[in-house]
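Forwarding the complex inputs:
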Amino acid sequence: MFNPIFLKITEEDIRSYADASGDFNPIHTDPAYAQKAGLNGCIAHGMLVMALGSRAISEWCRGELASYDARFQAMTYPDEPLVIKGSWTDEEAGKGRVTVENEAGEVKMKGAFWVK
Amino acid sequence: MKEKQELYRYSCTVEGEKVQAFKQTVSIADGKEEIPPTFLTVLDFHGGLSFQKLTDLLQFDPACVLHGSQSYEYIKPIFPGDHIQAIVYAAGRTDKRGMTFAKLETVYVKEQTPAVISRSTLIEQKGAADV
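Prediction (whole assembly, two chains):
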């Protein structure tokens, strides 16, 4: 098991990610649009969550990523306390798993990686 | 759909400023020159494949789209300044329990050979929103 990483994604982080990525889907930045779509408010980009997962992998493991897969399981709202967890599934082969979940254990993203 | 069909293609040069802005946003300070693992989604947006364009191509209602999964297979590194041609394929489309699942595959070509292959699933689900 790797050292867990605790973090929050703020509204500012989401706006910054929209600017940096070019993903201006209003569901992430316009509360009224998000509510019209049936949400409680703006949500983080799934790809932002995946990027934070990749940052964790680079902190945990040496070597170059050969593959990285993610399944998005639940929406991530601003300021939710999150934890990124990871472990080897086959250390010799460089294969591991990574998850992002909130304090209640709701899994936001479940991923697998392979480093060479 | 049995065979993948080309949906869109673009080519562009990886801009160092955009890579730095992305790294700053997700607090990546790895000292590596190559692009971060998920930066290619940025390349798509800057290459003209906006979320609106993609949902138009898939004929999905943009307010009802979930990003179900995303994967990357890294073959060779991409650096700022590299010229990339990206070819986006529709790799499958199925309907299940009132939802439509669209599978996409994007091949990022650098110097005539694939550098990264991306695969994703987008789901159109009425009453839900993009993750």
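Chain A touches chain B through 41 residues (CB under 8 Å).
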